[in-house]
């Protein structure tokens, strides 16, 4: 599950240290795993993305509010048809070897990331670039026809296959980061060895061992004055929570493998335990082709009869877009409350069930099974939901645990009644969540299709004004919930331990730990 946090948090190691002494203090992060390669294009897990985003920087970066802001690109222009972006790169952007960051480094990196043989899992995030998908799927061999071209050392031109309003947000993702072309061309293993690592971000690699990665402030970074931490050490202790309690690390937790060990917490460390949202929504999907779930009122009744607070997982969800996804100025969920879609109401659920059963010609609701995959607590959650249905609606159901592969196969082939599902954002925009339910989306295995919803998604992609676009997304989400194509259960959260004297360090929406603008109080 992807993670995100739309707020700054604080942490440090050692209480009572003076501000003057902490000004030059580094940050120690306890990790559950460390990457064995640091290729931005191949960065797929949270620990790798955490390190990569400290070492590399793209045309834009995300600020603490989740907004894309200029980075290596100091500015850009957009053609009248909304398809061609022309980026002006900073002339003072340098690689760690002292060479200038060139527009051709971006062109090379993007085409390299799209190469079919690379098999990069996030290559689809580049498919809005003209001919990118055709090249990635092996239908096009001529890379000159891909819509990215370095016009000169500091000008990059990108042509999209259609107007895509969220394209700038996408540019902050790891798949869009540049690589030093000369080294990457000469050594295809460059990203596995510190000796061949050439980077362009706010930090540069100091040490890389099996149990520690140390990165230090890059004095050649164009915005070096914004970087306050002299060093960040990503450590692999046996138990990150115990390491935090022993003051061996200043932070642990987040969306990766470094989850908090609650059994080890004491009264002091418990005060440093925080919870934040990340960009993933947990839901159940119906087999809409199978009675009685083809009846809207029955679906609505089931959705309204669940006590989401009692599930004790995440934050109750009544929509699809999680709170860590950026909207116009604030996060989307703050600007567009999901409380306007539907709410829990047992009395209304009973009436809807009664009407739905009458419409379906049922005198007794048939028992059914929820299929879930093998993983911690999926069956526990399903059992709690079933108890609510039994208590509030008199409905009988059971749980069947399957392998993840079997669950996916059954969902794709509509071989289920109700199935566990979920979605995590691939970039920080509502489109990353809502486009899942477009009819043409290959990941949409719900069986739900709506021409009106598809039109809203198309309109949003074309809308230049952010406020208009967010309103369209809200309208589409309202339609999705009105049709109750899925039952949203909760927006995922992540726990982390952080000392109170570090600021501007937080879990980003994608589960990586954002520390580049962090500092000690």
UniProtKB/TrEMBL annotation:
<protein>
    <submittedName>
        <fullName>Peptide ABC transporter substrate-binding protein</fullName>
    </submittedName>
</protein>
<dbReference type="InterPro" id="IPR039424">
    <property type="entry name" value="SBP_5"/>
</dbReference>
<dbReference type="InterPro" id="IPR000914">
    <property type="entry name" value="SBP_5_dom"/>
</dbReference>
<comment type="similarity">
    <text>Belongs to the bacterial solute-binding protein 5 family.</text>
</comment>
<dbReference type="InterPro" id="IPR030678">
    <property type="entry name" value="Peptide/Ni-bd"/>
</dbReference>
<feature type="domain" description="Solute-binding protein family 5">
    <location>
        <begin position="68"/>
        <end position="443"/>
    </location>
</feature>
<keyword id="KW-0813">Transport</keyword>
<keyword id="KW-0732">Signal</keyword>
<dbReference type="Pfam" id="PF00496">
    <property type="entry name" value="SBP_bac_5"/>
</dbReference>
């Amino acid at each position: 599950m992807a993670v995100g946090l739309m707020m700054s948090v604080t942490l440090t190691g050692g209480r009572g240290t003076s501000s003057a002494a902490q000004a030059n203090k580094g940050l120690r992060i306890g990790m559950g795993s460390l990457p064995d390669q640091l290729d931005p294009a191949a960065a797929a897990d949270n620990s790798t993305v955490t390190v990569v985003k400290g070492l590399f920087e793209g045309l834009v970066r995300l600020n603490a509010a989740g907004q894309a802001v200029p980075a290596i690109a100091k500015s850009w222009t957009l053609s009248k048809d909304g398809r061609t972006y022309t980026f002006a790169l900073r002339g003072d952007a340098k690689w760690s070897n002292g060479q200038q960051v060139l527009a051709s480094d971006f062109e090379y990196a993007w085409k390299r990331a799209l190469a079919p043989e690379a098999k990069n899992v996030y290559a689809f995030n580049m498919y809005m670039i003209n001919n990118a998908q055709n090249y990635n799927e092996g239908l096009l061999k001529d890379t000159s026809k891909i819509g990215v071209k370095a016009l000169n050392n500091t000008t990059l031109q990108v042509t999209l296959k259609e107007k895509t309003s969220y394209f700038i947000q996408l540019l902050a993702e790891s798949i869009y980061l540049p690589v030093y072309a000369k080294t990457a061309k000469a050594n295809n293993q460059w990203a596995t060895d510190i000796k061949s690592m050439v980077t362009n971000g706010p930090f540069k690699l100091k040490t890389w061992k099996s149990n520690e990665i140390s990165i230090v402030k890059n004095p050649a970074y164009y915005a070096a004055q914004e970087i306050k931490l002299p060093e960040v050490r990503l450590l692999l202790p046996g138990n990150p929570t115990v390491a935090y309690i022993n003051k061996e690390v200043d932070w642990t937790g987040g969306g990766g493998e470094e989850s908090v060990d609650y059994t080890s917490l004491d009264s002091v460390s418990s005060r440093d335990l925080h919870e934040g949202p990340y960009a993933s929504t947990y839901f159940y999907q119906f087999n809409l082709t199978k009675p009685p779930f083809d009846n809207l009122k029955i679906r609505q009744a089931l959705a309204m009869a669940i006590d989401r607070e009692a599930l004790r997982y995440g934050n109750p969800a009544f929509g699809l877009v999680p709170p860590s996804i950026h909207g116009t100025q604030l996060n989307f969920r703050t600007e567009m409350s999901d409380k306007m879609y539907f709410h829990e109401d047992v009395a209304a659920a009973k009436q809807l069930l009664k009407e739905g059963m009458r419409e379906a010609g049922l005198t007794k609701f048939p028992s059914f099974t929820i299929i879930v995959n093998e993983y911690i607590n999926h069956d526990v959650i399903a059992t709690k939901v079933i108890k609510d249905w039994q208590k509030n609606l008199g409905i009988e159901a059971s749980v069947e645990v399957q392998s993840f592969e079997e669950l996916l196969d059954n969902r794709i082939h509509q071989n289920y009644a109700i199935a566990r599902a979920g979605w995590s954002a691939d970039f920080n925009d509502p489109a990353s969540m809502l486009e899942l339910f477009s009819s043409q989306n290959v990941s949409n295995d719900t069986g739900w299709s709506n021409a009106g919803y598809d039109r809203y998604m198309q309109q949003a992609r074309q809308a230049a004004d952010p406020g208009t676009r967010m309103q369209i997304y809200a309208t589409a989400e309202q339609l999705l919930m009105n049709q109750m194509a899925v039952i949203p259960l909760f927006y995922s959260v992540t726990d982390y331990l952080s000392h109170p004297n570090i600021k501007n360090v937080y879990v980003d929406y994608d589960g990586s730990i954002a520390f580049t603008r962090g500092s000690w109080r």
